[in-house]
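Standup notes, structure subgroup. Blocker cleared on the magnesium ion input:
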Amino acid sequence: MAKLTVNNLDVRGKRVFVRVDYNVPLEETNGQTVITDATRIRETIPTLDLLISKGAKIILASHLGRPKGQREPSMSLRPVAAKLPDLLCRPVAFVDDCIGEKVQKTVGAMKPGDVLLLENLRFYKEEEANDPGFAEKLAEAADVYVNDAFGAAHRAHASTEGVPRLMTRRGAPCAAGLLMERELKFLGEELEKPARPFVVILGGAKVSDKIKVIDRLLEKADAILIGGAMAYTFRLAQGFKVGKSLAEADKGEVAKAAVEKAQARAVHFLIPVDDVIATPVDTGKLNKKGKPIIEMQNPRLHSQSNIPDEACGLDIGPQTMEKYSDVIGRAKTILGNGPMGMFEDARFAEGTNAVAKAVVEATQKGGAKSIIGGGDSVKALHNAGLGDKVTFVSTGGGASLEFLEGAVLPGVAALTEQ
Ligand code: 3PG
Ligand code: MG
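Run returned:
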C-alpha cells in the first residue's frame, strides 16, 4: 500500500524527527575514528535537502552498533556529525543525548533549515525494548515524523515503530523519506512484475538464512543461481562429498525441497559445478576475538563435484562462472544477494567479481534492471569498483532480506497511508 512520502509534506517551520540508519562501519586509525563507508549517510542527503528546501527544522536520530543500553563511546554518532556537514554543505549541530532537556533546549532554538543530529538511540535500552515512555520522550521534540532508515525498518523499536504509532494517534503525519521510498520501489514494486527473464543470484554462508527468500523467489524467478558456502549444503543434499566446506548437514531436506519446487515450476536452479578449493590449516594462533586463526593453504581449481576430505570450497570455478555469466547475460531483471565465495580474500574473490561484472554488463549493454540487496554483496560490488554501475543498491542488510521474504516491516507499517 502506498505510504505518505516527504514529497507530500508541508513542513515549513515544523520540527521534523527523521529516523535515519547511520549505522556505518567505523575504524580507529591513529586515535582517530574514521567512517570507512559513508554510503548510508550519503543516500539520505536527497531527503534532507528536500526538507531543508521546504523550511523544516530537522532532528536526525539513528542507532550505531549494538551498545545494549550502555553509553559506549566507541559507538557514538559524533564521527557522523563531523562527516555530515561535508555531504550536506551546511553546519550540523550535535547533542550528546537523544532525549531530555538538552535536546529540548537545542530544538527550541532551531530555525527553518537547521539540522541537528542526536546521540545514539541505543544508549538507552528502552529503544530496542520499544518502550512507550521512551517513545513519548523522543516524540516530544517533533511535529512530523519521517522514516528514511530502510536498513532498520525490520526492527520494531521505539524510534522506528513506537514514535510513528504515537504521533499517528496525535494526528501528526508520518512519512517515508526518499531513500525509504526508493528501497520499497526497487525491492518491492519492481520485483512484483519483473521483465523476463528474471534471474536471481543468491550467495552467502547459510541456506538457513536464505531459505525463505529462495522459497518466495522460486515463485517469481526464471533462474536461480546459487553460490557461496550455501552451495555446499545443496551439494551435500545431492549426495556429493564436500570435505571441510562450510555446509549445514541438517538442512538437507530443506535444500531438496527447494530443488523439487524449482523442478515443479520449471525454474532453472543452478548450483556450482566446479570450485576453487584450499586446505584449511590451524595456525595455533588466536584472533582478536579469541577464535583460532585458520589459514587457507594451497588454493587450487577443482573441477569435480566431490571435494577431497581435507579441503574446503571457497569460490566458484571457471566453468560455473561461465555458465552463470551466460544466464545473467540474457536476463532483463536481476536480483543479487550474497557473494559467490570468500571474497574478502583476493584468492577467492574471482567468482564474485566475475558475477558482478556479468551483472554490470547485462545492465549497461543488455538494458537489464539490476537490483543488489544485502550487506556483503554490496561490499563485494564496491570492492570490485562497480557500486555505481547497477540499477539499484540497497542500504539494507537484514531489512532487505526480510522484505524480499515478503515480511511486513514494522517501520514501514507504522507510516501513514496515502
Ligand atoms: C544493519 O546494519 O543491519 C541495521 O543498521 C540494523 O542494525 P541491527 O541489526 O543491529 O538492528
Ligand atoms: Mg543487521
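Discussed briefly. The CA atoms of residues 174 and 416 lie 5 Å apart.
Next: hand off to the docking folks.
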